[in-house]
């Protein structure tokens, strides 16, 4: 459906007690249209009428990739984005890097919102990675009964937080746990989760790990 045909219904201009500002007017009664019909004898469709006469300015061809119907990320783009994100580079800077390679933002057929949507989809489908991690911890616990881990999932069953420490970590904490350092990286992995490490120093002045956890956010209830 062409979004500039006809005009906006009058009722949308007279909504009482409107809380939000009305959206910009886009419909202008543009006569451009295409009519497609079905030829039953030939079993295929054909264009019965076509008019490209517009009563408004049209988008320049070089900006057509920004139209919602044209925006897309190829498999190569997604793979390149994932590789760069592993280095902790934010999506906005990756998009700027892609634009520099393509000699302009108008040559990049997707926006930062599209990139975030792809990331969200990958995280939703990343349940297999979470299950593999939990399976590894279960198998590790068979060899180290002192291993302790605890996972927290949301209402959709997606892994949100994961805490773990093994037998060696516990012994180190009992001996060298007088002072505990707390350090959180800032979403340096593909899942944008924070890695929190609890550590200390042993009698050789070497760092020892007491425990580690992956958290999805930095809310107070996450740490309590």
UniProtKB/TrEMBL annotation:
Chain ranges of the WRKY domain: 1-59
One Pfam family in the UniProt entry: MULE
Domain of life: Eukaryota
Gene Ontology MF, one: sequence-specific DNA binding
InterPro entries, sorted: FAR1_DNA_bnd_dom, MULE_transposase_dom, WRKY_dom
PANTHER family (UniProt xref): OS01G0519700 PROTEIN, PROTEIN FAR1-RELATED SEQUENCE 5-LIKE
Protein name from the UniProt record: Protein FAR1-RELATED SEQUENCE 5-like
